[in-house]
Every structure is written in C-alpha cells, then in structure tokens.
Write a structure and sequence with these properties.
With 139 residues, this protein is α+β, with helices and mostly antiparallel strands. It contains 4 helices and 6 strands; from the N terminus they run αββαβαβαββ.
Length: 139
C-alpha cells in the first residue's frame, strides 16, 4: 500500500510505522508500538547473550627439565581448564642449548598421551622462536 495510507493507518491506531526489511522490493513495514518493539529486540538480544558460552584459552608454561610433581600439577590444571570447557595452550620455553634437544617435544608428547581421552589437538607442537607451542581443546 502507499506510504501515505500506511502512515494514516498507524496514526489512527496510535502506533508507529516501522520499516522491517528495507532491502526487499517493495520494502516491508509493520504497524506497531516502537517502544515495545525496541524492548523486545533488546530482550531477545540479552537472552541470546546469556545462553552463549565464551571459550577462553588458558596458558600453561612449561620447561623441558620439568620435575615429575610439577608435571603432575600442570596436568591437573589442564584437566580443570578442559572440564570448564576452555582451550589450553601449552608453552614450552627453552633456554640456551635446550632447544637443540628433543626433550621439550617429549614432554609435550607425554602431555598428549596423558590427556588423550579428554582432548583434541587444535595445533600440533611447533617452534615459535625460543618456545614450542601446542593448543588443545576439550572433546
């Protein structure tokens, strides 16, 4: 219907003429209370925001010469982060000639073996400068 006629209908009903989809041919409009419409849109937006889960990436820093107890503590922390639904980034830091040996890769492989039922690997262990990085997420 013509715009003038639609505006007259909206004025008679004490409501507003709201353009719902301007890209359509012809544009789609509705006659309704604008304040109530904005309130409902905001309420739907807040509801969607409440239901979404924000996935964080937690970082655990390790060294290639890690002791068994320290290793177990890091595994325990990783399990806690994974159970909360977060990703875990393992960072193996090297000093001096440690990067030349494969001890860091062995530690990261042990982590993969210990957590294999709980995780899927997002990025395999790879060297980035003087550190080796691996990212895992919960199954």
């Amino acid at each position: 219907m013509p715009i003038k006629q639609a505006l007259e209908l909206a004025a008679e009903a004490d409501l507003d003429l709201i353009e719902i989809s301007p890209q359509a041919t012809p544009p789609v409009c509705k006659i309704l209370d604008y304040g109530k419409y904005k309130y409902e849109v905001q309420k739907r937006k807040n509801e969607a925001k409440k239901n979404q889960k924000i996935v964080e990436t937690k970082e655990l820093k390790l060294r290639p010469m890690i002791d068994t107890h320290d290793y177990e503590v890091k595994i325990k922390q990783a399990k806690k982060f994974l159970s909360q639904g977060n990703k875990v980034k393992f960072t193996m830091r090297f000093k001096g000639r440690e990067a030349a040996s494969d001890m860091g890769a062995k530690v990261l492989q042990n982590i993969l073996d210990d957590l294999e039922s709980l995780i899927k690997v997002d990025s395999e262990p790879k060297m980035e400068g003087r550190q080796m990085v691996m990212i895992v997420s919960p199954n």
